[in-house]
Amino acid sequence: MLFDRYFLLSFLKLFFTVSAVSVFLVSLYALLDFMLGFKEKDAWVGVKYFLLLIPLSFYYAGPALLALSLVLFLKRLVEKKVDLVVQSFALPPLRLALPLISFALLLSLLFLAGNQLLFPVLSSELWRLEKTYKKKQEAGGIVRNFWFLKEEKGRLSYYFVESLDLKRGTAFNFRRFRVSYPFMTPEELLKVESGLWRGERLLVLKGVRYDFTKGLREVLENRSLKTGLTARDVELFAERLEFLPLSYLYELFRKSKLVGASGEVYLGELLYRAAFSFLPFVLSVFLVKEFLKLRSLPKVLIKLAVLLPLLWSLALMPKLLAQKGAKSPLWALPPQAVVFLFLLKSFHDLRKGFRV
């Protein structure tokens, strides 16, 4: 309909204006950070830093930017009594809100696709750029619960270190899981309870190695194994979970179950990214429903101040449970299911309408 097109275009102008202001602020931050925080003032490094930062900032700030745009747009709509005019023609509020909710759903789907195709690559490049050129980014201290990846010829090696002292080289609960690439077929699993990292070699004090290609199990004691990188290289050449696309996370979760290893951390990251991607859609439904029902900016802002951090916390819960709490990320599903039920209730209210 012509009205839908005009309605959506009006909102998009506001949304992109708010986003442009956000991009401008991020640009100022990038410029100041580059001038003050980087060891090397090469122009190309600064441009690359800026280009990497902008899309990632939009992704992480996207739910808040959409919420702010919706509040400003709906405030203007309510002031002009457009919602009352629409309901006077016996049309439900959902009919009025459909273009806004549809755009929010499209944005969520784009975020989900970006988690597979774009954002992991950008995050990896940005992290490496900062580790290479920013001041005070040298590796040091103790690394805890650190996951990383090393790509070799025809294989990928996924590492986990529960505790690694980068200065002394002491490592506890070290894991190396090798798979063939691109078929992701398990080849080897190395479990080390304790060891000493010296140069590119790890002295395994106590551990075990499983060779899946030959069906062998080997107990290791005081054995020196080549790792291909030094302990001090770990941070600089690391590939963290945030840098893996969704398909890799799923494959690692599935393969880890096949070899008897815990895959909860992969599942937690996967569920977190999926939930965060759909925050714009969930927020849009709740905000539209509350604004058209209450028709009061202060009341809606109070609810938004509670709703935004609550939804963000629920999206983050699977990741925190798996990586920090050593619990199954599936424990986050019951509270998320409650949010889903409230989402259905909001759709029902929008379809039914409100008394005016």
Question: What does the model show?
Answer:
There is one protein chain. This protein has 356 residues and is α+β, with helices and mostly antiparallel strands. The chain has 2 domains: 2-123 and 271-352, no CATH class; 140-235, no CATH class. Helix content is 59%, strand content 19%. The protein has helices spanning 2-37, 43-79, 82-88, 93-117, 119-133, 246-258, 264-277, 279-294, 297-323, 333-352, and strands at 142-152, 155-165, 170-180, 186-198, 201-211, 216-220, 223-226. Strands 1, 2, 3, 4, 5, 6 and 7 form a 7-stranded antiparallel beta sheet that branches. The radius of gyration is 25 Å and the shape is elongated. The two termini are 25 Å apart.
Count of helices? 10
- Helix-strand sequence: HHHHHEEEEEEEHHHHH
The percentage of residues in β strands lies in 15-25%
Task: Tell me how many strands there are.
Answer: 7
The value of Rg in angstroms is 25 Å
Question: What integer is the average pLDDT?
Answer: 84
Shape: elongated
Number of structural domains:
2
**How much helix, percentage-wise, in residues?**
55-70%
Record the SSE blueprint.
Elements: H1 2-37, H2 43-79, H3 82-88, H4 93-117, H5 119-133, E1 142-152, E2 155-165, E3 170-180, E4 186-198, E5 201-211, E6 216-220, E7 223-226, H6 246-258, H7 264-277, H8 279-294, H9 297-323, H10 333-352
Helix pairs in contact: 1-2, 1-4, 2-5, 2-8, 2-9, 4-8, 4-10, 6-7, 7-9, 8-9, 8-10, 9-10
